[in-house]
Amino acid sequence: MTQRSDLAAALKDQSLAALMNPQRSQELTLQAGPWRVDLSKHFLTPEVIQAFTDWAAERQLDDAIQQLFAGAPLNLTEGRAVMHMALRGTPDDAYQADGQGIMDDVLTERERCLAFAERVRGGQHTGATGKPIKRVINIGIGGSDLGPRMAVQALAPDHDGPELKFVANVDPSDLHHALAGADPETTLIIVASKTFTTIETLTNARVAREWLVSALGEAAVGAHFVALSTALDRVAEFGIPAEQTFGFWDWVGGRYSLWSAIGLPIMLAIGRDAFEQFLAGARDMDQHFQTAPLAQNVPMLMGLLYAWYRQDWHKGSVAVIPYDQHLSELPAYLQQADMESLGKRVTRQGAAIEHATGAVVWGEPGTNGQHAFFQLLHQGSDWIPVEFILSARPRLGAQAQHDLLVANAVAQAEALLVGKDTETARAEKSGPNGLDLGLHRTFPGSRPSTLMMTERMTPRALGALIALHEHRIFVQGWLWNLNAYDQWGVELGKELALSAAEALASGNTQGKDASTAAAIDWLRSNRG
After folding, report:
1. Is the separation of the CB atoms in 385 and 449 below 8 Å?
2. I want to staple 240 with a disulfide (CB 3.0 to 4.6 A). Which of 136, 227, 329, 439 is the partner?
3. What is the mean predicted confidence (pLDDT) over 308-323?
4. Phi and psi for 425 in degrees, rounded to 5?
5. Is residue 36 packed enough to be buried (19+ CB in 10 Å), middle (13-18) or exposed (0-12)?
């Protein structure tokens, strides 16, 4: 047993409400950029903070953060630096990757993207028939879809550019709905694939190309397609000109790439000034993460806390509940960022990890979730850490209605904390024929949650929130000594999908297991 696991065992029956006092609330409510983060409803005591300090020192976390920002090849399995922070850098920064300066390239490509976005937004870039662009369809998957999709939705009140649609699923209905009602003359299609080989993305892109060509002819492809890719030869074969091809680098992981050319849909939606504020918010959090001491460092403390909950409390789930309808895609975005990064069971050196890693991240906007799964959060047999995300002021609508929204968030966090004891519940109400409802209406309480609050959900606040979680994930991965920046777990399914597609076309299931072969046979016989 480690000191941390001993503390977890000792705190198992601790009443969190009994720990609460004004001093604790003040000491454990931290400021990071535009975010006020209240960690006082967690199992944080002076002894736990000291154990976290020891854990960070043992894992040389401060040195790891310096290595990260210095561009060391921390992605060991692929021999790459991890430098998405440079994507929000300024001309004054001197970021490097593998010993080479990268800011000139970053700033040049950013300016190319922003300038193109402004031409589209201003009507200077037109379709093949001279009409301005009214609808943009982004075709990508994973990090090439989730990030820009989430940010465009989150910043909908700032959206003053063309209509944006997103296509990720190879299910033909996804593309069908995006194209429904679109005018080929006023539609721009972005194909986001670093290698220009992603099977789902390229399948959708080819169908979209056929749709355009059937209406406007082959010569129109160049005016209506944009590529976010580094595979210039494949892009050229597709018919997209080099001036409409925007790239990024090997030191940018897909799930960390919305700050790069992959963020072109965000630029098109909100424009140069707002996008630069989005980057500035992330840069605020970068500086906080690098400079704040552990006890005031929000990404560091949250990473330590989540790692502790998973490893020593055996909590396999985290709920993210934004009380902001515009943030409806945030749980899915964080799900990929976290689970693709931390869903590993091997150390950076290739040995088996002997404890639990990687939690399931999930959620839904409040107040919808209160009428769906909060029953489990309050009275389920196990507790789940919860993040409540809210702002003091609405982007749209009346303040009074927004106050009701955020009152629900604060009340839910309070209810998780204080609960309701059996005697109180019993005295409040009895059931039919005098049935004792005491235990039925008991709330255990002492269920931890985080209140993450900002004045207003602006582009700057969103950028800071995303960067906070990026750094929190880095901390967890480093504590567990795993590589948070590869994703070999997605490869096998991709390989077998090609094989299954061939078998579905030919009927040859040789080499397939009996269950897979039977599924392919049934599909072939029932597809019409």
Report:
1. yes
2. 227
3. 98
4. -60, -40
5. middle
- Model confidence over 280-312: pLDDT tens digits? 999 999 999 999 999 999 999 999 999 999 999
First to last CA, the chain: 60
Q: Which residues pair with 450 in a beta bridge?
A: 387
CATH fold group of domain 3-79+278-479: Rossmann fold (3.40.50)
Length of the chain: 528
Tell me the three-class secondary structure of 446-486, residue by residue: CCCEEEEEECCCCHHHHHHHHHHHHHHHHHHHHHCCCCCCC
Residue 1: predicted pLDDT: 58
* pTM of the complete model: 0.96
Under 8 Å between Cβ of 184 and 219: no
Domain with CATH 3.40.50.10490 in the chain: 3-79+278-479, 103-248
Cα–Cα distance for residue pair 168/190, rounded to 1 Å:
12
CATH 3.40.50.10490 matches 103-248: yes
- Rounded distance between C-alpha atoms, residue 396 and residue 238, angstroms: 42
For the stretch 242-265, what's the b/e string if a residue is b when 16 or more beta carbons lie within 10 angstroms of its beta carbon? eebbbbbbebbbbbbbbbbbbbbb
Q: Is the dihedral of CA 1, 13, 297, 386 positive or negative?
A: positive
* Maximal CA-CA distance, the chain: 79
Is the pLDDT assigned to residue 528 strictly greater than 80?
Answer: no
Tokens linked to 92: 């004054």
Nearest CA to 208 out of 191, 233, 195 is that of: 191
Six-digit token string for 113: 């993207």
Written as one string, the DSSP assignment of 265-285 is HHHHHHHHHHHHHHHHHHHHH
Element (DSSP H or E) covering residue 135: strand 135-139
Average pLDDT, the chain: 96
Give catalytic residue positions. Answer: 340, 371, 494
Residue 157: both structure tokens together: 């009140």
